[in-house]
Amino acid sequence: MFESKAGVLLIGGLGFFAFAFVSNAVVPILMYRDLPEQTAEETVNANLMYEFEDLSRRFPEAFEKHYGQPTKENAAKALRLGRDLYIGEGCWHCHSQFVRPVSNESLRWGPVAKTEEYQNELQRPVMFGTRRVGPDLSREGGRRSNDWQAVHLFRPETVSTGSPMPEYAWFFDGDPSKPSERGLAVLTYIQWLGSWLESYPYYEDYQPVETMEAAP
User: Fold this and answer.
1) Which of 53, 131, 141, 169 is within CB 3.0–4.6 Å of 70 for a Cys-Cys bond?
2) What pLDDT, on a 0 to 100 scale, did the predictor assign at position 22?
3) What DSSP string describes 57-72?
4) Per DSSP, what are the bridge partners of residue 120?
């Protein structure tokens, strides 16, 4: 067996498989086994709050009706619903959420994905995905405005000619300017993706609404 080309290739293949399993599964498990899983509330950061408050300004009537004030608690509520809708609508079939360290993917999608990014309840199940009919969304948050994202959900071809993405008109009460609770939740979830990275747009003058209200 070891003297034939087929035998050498078999042993080599099994060896590479074992190496990949240990380096990509066993080692991360050992490294992060004591890292507690974050709640949705704990994943809400300043970047996401900027976008969440922006939703309250762009769509004031809808936001007031469904979420009231742009607080961290309401942002976490929107994130949970948005994640569930993202899964339920099958968005993960066409959009992966895992930037791989191959083929210069980091040039297209942003930094290569890290294990700790998935250690929270919003990444359960982890939506690595297997197809990229649409772009990877790991770093989508903050790249485009909420207005753009709303129009894209309502009628994709309006902002992306030739897009195969279906229309999600049921996320709105009439047109892109009137997102429903579900629409606001999905928009919040999309803007959350990658919000924990330094590469996320930095808002130098941003102050949370709660902080501004508490100031004398």
Assistant:
1) 53
2) 83
3) HHSHHHHHHHT-S--H
4) 38
Cα gap 200→192, rounded to integer Å: 10
Site of tokens 């709660």? 210
For residue 46, give both structure tokens: 């300043």
Could you tell me the residue ranges of all domains in the chain?
A: 1-34, 38-214
Q: Give Cβ neighbours of residue 123 (< 8 Å, ≥ 6 apart).
A: 117
Q: What CATH number is given for 38-214 in this structure?
A: 1.10.760.10
- CB proximity list for 137: less than 8 A, separation 6 or greater: 95, 96, 97, 190, 193
For residue 132 the two structure tokens come to 């990229």
| Global pTM value | 0.82
Read off the amino acid at residue 102.
V
Q: Mean per-residue pLDDT for 38-50?
A: 95
Which tokens hold the place of 201? Answer: 């747009």
Strand pairing partners for 179?
A: 172
From CA 187, how far away is CA 145, in angstroms rounded?
10
Tell me: the pLDDT tens digits for 77-123?
Answer: 999 999 999 999 999 999 999 999 988 899 988 999 998 899 999 99
CA dist 193 and 126 (Å) reads 13
The band of 213, judged by pLDDT with boundaries at 50, 70 and 90, is very low
